Amino acid sequence: LILLDDICYRIRDDGTATVADDGEGVPYAVVTRFEPHLSFEITGRNTRAEFTALIDERLGSANYMYAVRVDGVYERMTVRAVHVQQQPYRPLVQATAEQKVTEFSDVSGTVVGFRTPAFEEGLSVPGYHAHVLLDERRSGGHVLDHVILRGRVQVCVGTDLHLELPRTPEFARANLDPEDLREQVDRAES
Fold first, then answer.
1. What's the pLDDT tens digit per position in 140-170?
2. Which domain holds residue 69?
3. I need a labelling partner for 128 at 20 to 30 A (CA). Which of 3, 66, 156, 179 fits?
4. Does some domain include residue 190?
5. pLDDT tens, position by position, 62-110
6. How far is the C-alpha of 58 from the C-alpha of 164, rounded, in Å?
């Protein structure tokens, strides 16, 4: 799901986006009330690695979680989406093994995501984790790679964290500490 401007969008595995139903659940979400503390324009062709380095230079500290919004024009945007899961739910690495990858060319859209500090590993994925919703609001997904041409970057620093865990038998029985947890997360996120 992508929550953007108070509207929640569901991304299907073919890269299409629709407004989510009120009762739709999600296995995991990171959400903030976005109030930008930093805003700047970016111009010139930048790969995702170059672009995130430009953001990092302006942050000041790697010890905070940052919410990032980029309204931009992209030469290329590569996204993925995982097929909706049904009970019994498979581990994330198995679900993402069947993910669909879609590439968009010459598009504009809004990338929203978080930059998580390394010490929060286990609660979230360290580094950048982002999703995109294209301007027509009918396509998007989890950002795997992109080349940005220009855009407006807004950053909101996070200084507090609220965590809610489900009180269900399934959660109580789940093995959330497998020996290969880091490897599973790396495979699921790449």
1. 999 999 999 999 999 999 999 898 898 999 8
2. 2-161+177-184
3. 179
4. no
5. 999 999 999 999 999 999 988 787 777 777 778 777 789 999 999 999 9
6. 31
What CATH number is attached to the domain comprising 105?
3.30.1330.80
Residue type, 29: A
The whole-angstrom separation of Cα 150 and Cα 25 is 34
Instruction: Give the span between the Cα atoms of 41 and 70, in whole angstroms.
Output: 9
Cα(98)–Cα(149) distance, integer angstroms: 31
In-domain check, residue 122:
yes
Gap between the Cα atoms of 140 and 103, Å rounded: 10
Structure tokens at 92: 């994330």
Q: H/E element holding 187?
A: helix 181-189
CA distance 93 to 121: 17
Residue 170 lies in a domain: no
Q: How many CB atoms lie within 10 A of CB 40?
A: 12
C-alpha–C-alpha distance, residues 85 and 90, integer Å = 8
